[in-house]
Amino acid sequence: MLILLALAFLISFLVIFYFLKKNKTPKPYEIDKPDFQQNLSKNLKEISGISYFTENQIVCINDEVGHLFVYDYKKEEIIDTLEFEADGDYEDVVFLEGISYVLRSDGQISAFETNSKNTIKYDCSNDEVEEFEGLGYDPKSNSLLLAAKEMKGEKAIFQFDLNNKILTKKFSISKDDIKKNGKHGKEFKPSGIAVHPISGEIYVLASAGKKLLVLDENGKVKQQYNLDDDQFPQPEGICFTPNGDLIISSEGKNGKASISYFGYKTTK
Question: Which of 44, 151, 194, 202 qualifies as a cystine partner to 129, CB 3.0-4.6 A?
Answer without folding.
Answer: 151
